Request: fold
Amino acid sequence: MKRIYLLASSLPLLLLLALSIGATEVDAVWATIFSFDFTSSTLDNQIIWQIRAPRVIAAVLIGAILGIAGTLSQAATNNPLADPALLGTTAGAAAGVVIGVAFNLVSLGSFAAVVAATIGAMLATLFTFWLARSALQLIIMGIAVSAILTALVGVAISLIDRPDLRSISFWSLGSLALIAPSDLLALFAIAVVVLLIALTLSRELDLLSLGDNAVRHIGRDPQRIRLIAFLTLSVAIAASVSTVGTIAFLALAAPHIARFIVGPRHRTLLIAAAVIGAVILLLADTGARSIAPPQDLPIGILVAILAAPLLILTLKKGQMQWR
Amino acid sequence: MAIMKCDGLWLTRGNTPVLADFSLEIQEKSITAIIGANGSGKSTIVSVLAGDLIPDSGSVKLFDKEIDHFGLSELATIRSVVLQHQNFWLGYTVREVIEMGQDAPSLARVDQVMRELGIEKIAGQSVLTLSGGQAQRVSIARALVRDTAIYLFDEPFSSQDRESRQVLIDIFQGLKESGKTVVIVAHLADSDLGWCDHIIEKLA
Reply:
C-alpha cells in the first residue's frame, strides 16, 4: 500500500508536468502555471488553464473511474478477463447518448448526456445480467449484447445524418480532447460517489471471489452483491463514455497492475486501481498531445503502449492462477 | 429424530435422471455417510441438502419445514457446507479466506480451528500456493468456525493423507459429541467408515 501512496503523491507533480507539455510552445510556462491565474486572457494563460488544464484533470478523473469500474467488473463476474466493455456497459452508454441526441432529448457535453448514458449503460448491463445463467456466462452474453448495441449505434449514426452525433470513431475511439470544462464537476462528483459505494462493497467483493456457493452458504446473496457492483460500474462507465468516448483496455489492465502492487483485498485494490488508472491515462494523454504535434494521437494507442507491457509484466511476475 | 428428510426426490439433467424417487433421512446428533460410485449423484444430494439445488419434485425438509421456505441467512445459521472443489484465483492469505464474511463469534474461533486442522503455520500464506489437501482443509475451516446444527461435507477426505484424515474423523466425532449432526459424502471405495453411525448408499 505504501507504494500506492507514493504513486498517488506523485500525481500532483505529474499534473504540473502534464500542464507544461503540449503541442504549442508556451514561453514562460512555469510562471504561467504557478500564477494559478485561471481568468487572465493572455494566450499563454488560455493555453495552460483553459485548454490543457480541463484535459489534464479529466485524464486523472476518467483514469480513476475506469480503474474502479474495471475492478468492479472483475470482482462481480469473478473473472480476470472482465471489463465493462465485455459486459455490454460501454456499448450501452454509447447507445444511450446516441439515442438521446438523435431524439433531441439531450445535447452532447451536457449533464443530460451523462444521464442518458447512465440509463443506457444500466439497461444494457442489467440485460446482460438477466440473460446470463452463471458468472462465466456474463462475459459471453455481455459480448453479444455489446455487439448488438454497437451495431445499433452504427446504424443510427448512418441513418440520422447529424453532425452533433459525432462520428462512429468517436464512440469507438475516445479522445480527451472532447472534454468540456463544464463536465469536470460532474465527473469529479461521480468519481467520488462511485469510489465510496465500491469501498462499502469491498468486503463482499472479497467474499465473492470464493464463488457463489460459498457466499450463499454463509447467508449472503451473491446476485445482490453483483447487482450493486453492476449498477455502480454502469454509472462510472456512463460518465466516462458520455464525456470522452470509449477508452479501451485501461479498465482491464489497471486492476491487474494494482493487484500486483497491493494484493487482492478490494479495500486497497479499489484505491490502487483508481490511482493506477489515473496515472496511466494522464501519461497516455500527455503523450497523445505532445508526441507528434499538432496531431492528437488516439488515446487508445498510448494507453496500449503504456499499459500492455505493464500488464504482461505483472501477470508474468504475479501469482494469479487461471482456472 | 430425523433432522433432515428427503422424500421422493426427482431430478433430471438433460435426459439423465440424477435422482429418481430418492428418499433419505438424516438422524439428529449422528454422523451419516452417503457413499456412491463416481457419477452416482452423491454430490447432488449434498447440494440438495444444502438448499443450493431444488429438485424437480419431491420434498426436502429441515426441522420438519420445507427447505425452500428458509431464507438464505436463516439457512446459514442452521447448516454449514463444504463443497468438494474450491477454486482460489486471487492471492488472499489462508487466514483472510477463512475469515471472509464471517460473523464475530465465528471469527473468535478461527485460531482454534486452524490449530485443530494443522493449518495455523500457513495462516499467512497465499491460498494460491497451497497443496490440494491444504486448500481442502481451508474450506473445511470456513465451515468449522461456524456454530451450526448441521455440517455437510462433500468428499472431505479426497485430497487428505492418512494422518489428516484421522484428524478430520476426530473433529467430526467431536462435533457429534457436542450435539451436532454431520453428513459426509464418501467414495464407494472408502472401506473405513466404521466410525459413522449410518451409511447410505446412493446407487447410480
About this structure: The mean pLDDT of chain A is 88.
